[in-house]
Amino acid sequence: MPSTGEFSTMMRAPVNKIIPFSNVDGPGNRTAVFFQGCPFNCLFCHNPETIRLCQSCGACVESCPAKALSFAADGQLFWDSAACVQCDACIKRCPYDASPRVRWMSVEELLSDIRRSAPYIAGITTSGGECTQYNEFLIELFTEVQKLGKSCLIDSNGSFDFARDPRVLAVCDGVMLDVKAVSPAWSKELLSHPPRLVLKNLDYLLCVGKLQELRTVILPGRDRENEETVRYVAARIGEACPYKIIRYRPYGVRERYQKLLGELETEADYAERYADLARSLGATKAYVI
To answer: Model-level pTM?
Structure first.
């Protein structure tokens, strides 16, 4: 591990965006860092442009009204952040669920951004994509952020085996975990991924006291799957942490999946039924968002 002021200069991670001040990514005012790349392919993903890395295919170049995209001499796509007007034309055009607007940042470069917000934040939250794909980077980043007296949280889909690398949790204050499905069949349909590791992480994070909050998206018309997931989660977490029952909203969801999942958001009363169910099973901190 590098000592104070020393960083692994060769270690970089792809950062999709940084929100300097967020009040929805954990307790208090926080800086949220969104990393690029995710091993899941959730049908209801609200930021699918973070799923894969840019392939430099060039499909987005002509769609950019600001001419902020071009090819570098090495054939890789170049993004001119100064010219970019953040219109999202490029990510709407991308056939790979990726984004050309990604910066490969070192820990020191990322810390430089965080330090500017440091006087006004309680800590940072790393998200994505799936930030735990860059666990070595996170270990170094969190070690330095904690020296600033700030807390470090991970927003995770549970695809990283926290038990196999305890170094991550040693420098992390907590994990905000998504449990989207508990049935193998439903998980494969919804996430293209089995639920075993996610559920293992749920139990492990509870055991070591690092579960900051848990979230489940409630889809309209999926009564059996919704109830199965909420029952499983609520019976395990009890009063250990808040349980967010999240209403499905189609905004940002890929159009081909909007038609499959529904083009209307989950009704508040429908979601509240599952919050009531969770509370009846002991998850007293369940609420709808």
So the answer is: 0.94
Q: Residue 144 belongs to a domain with what CATH number? A: 3.20.20.70
Cα–Cα dist 271/273, whole Å: 5
- Distance between CA atoms of 237 and 202, rounded to whole angstroms? 9
CATH number at residue 92: 3.30.70.20
Per-residue pLDDT tens over the stretch 190-205: 999 999 999 999 999 9
Q: Rg (Cα) of the chain, in Å, rounded?
A: 19
Provide CB contacts within 8 A for 192, sequence distance 6+: 40, 41
> What is the number of alpha carbons within 13 Å of residue 47 lying toward its C-beta?
13
Asked, as a colleague might, if the bond just before 129 is cis with ω within 30 of 0, I would say yes
Strand partners, 105: 13
DSSP-derived pairing of the beta strands 123-127 and 103-106: unpaired
pLDDT tens digit sequence for 228-281: 999 999 999 999 999 999 999 998 899 889 888 888 899 999 999 999 999 999
Q: What one-character-per-residue DSSP string does 156-205 give?
A: E-S-S-GGG-HHHHHT-SEEEEE----SHHHHHHHHSS-SHHHHHHHHHH
**Is 172 a domain residue?**
yes
Residue 152 is encoded by which pair of tokens?
């470090």
